[in-house]
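Dear support,

Our group has been running a series of protein-ligand predictions, and this particular one with fe (iii) ion is the one our PI (initials K.S.) wants archived with full inputs and outputs. We had some confusion internally about which version of the output was final, so please treat the block below as the authoritative record. The input we submitted was:
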Amino acid sequence: MFIDLPPLPYEKNSLEPIISTQTIQYHYGKHHKGYVEKLKKLIDGTKWEKEKLETIIKRTDNQTIYNNAAQVFNHTFYWNSMSPKRQQPEGALKMLLEKYFGSIDEFKKKFIEAGTTLFGSGWVWLVQDKDGALKIKQTRNAHCPLKDNEIPLLTCDVWEHAYYLDYKNERKKYLEKWWDLINWDFAAKNMKT
Ligand code: FE
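Confirmed final output from the archive:
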């Protein structure tokens, strides 16, 4: 079995005060874990049982398997998109962000706007398309850019469960604070050059 709940890349309290320990306890310990358990049950005894998560996401046409597989991937990607260590974009990633968005500030503005304006539950992403261009992408519910043959670089979860305990209904405030947690090293490593 390839599918499991990966360990968090930091302690549950290390994103305080931007994301509380309590939020992580629920979000990682209940929501993310729940998707892992549901997916394992769904694929048990099927042709997907020994496949990688990425393969399941790209190839399955079963909506329930897809939703759970994508949510497992998306959450792991979200935890890795954050770091307790404050960082700035550097090198090739910084250059490409400036090329496609004008400036880091402009990228920040557009990313937060995309997260704020996404109606309902979903994700906001920085992705690289097949031509190497950087794009901001909103996905609804569980949808994952891997299904669209795009390379995810960074994501923020904008389902209410990600921020409600800390920010109530103020999604924009969450996104603005979340900005300071971005793991730019992770985004740079995901980039194909
Ligand atoms: Fe979530």
